[in-house]
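Work Package 3 (structural annotation) set out to generate three-dimensional models for the target panel prioritized at the project kickoff. During this period the team completed the workflow that converts sequence records into discrete structure tokens, so that structures can be stored uniformly alongside our sequence database. As a representative example, we reproduce one entry of 108 residues exactly as it appears in the project archive.
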Amino acid sequence: MEIRWVDFPFSDGSEHKKRPSLVVSNDAYNRGPDVLAVSVTSNLAARPYAVVLNVRHFSQGKLPIESRVRADKLYSFERTQIGPVIGRVTPSFFALVVKQIRQLIEEK
């Protein structure tokens, strides 16, 4: 349930940029070499599988501006790419993001 800084490589591999991401993998998985996380963006355009994130969704810490968590932008990162904790989201917000991921991958 942590929002952490993640070292995102550009698609051409030439550079990297630190961006906030919500870690969605469990603690047991995170002890391995990889971590699963979804993107957090300041682009507030309404999109399927995107959940608005603001200060009331944090149990600890905060982001400087309202953002969206993009449940459809799920990535696997090496633990070495995962940076410091920015904050922690509430269990109810995390459950909402997980619900969006499930809707994305489950057959209907």
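The chain is about 20% helix and 50% strand.
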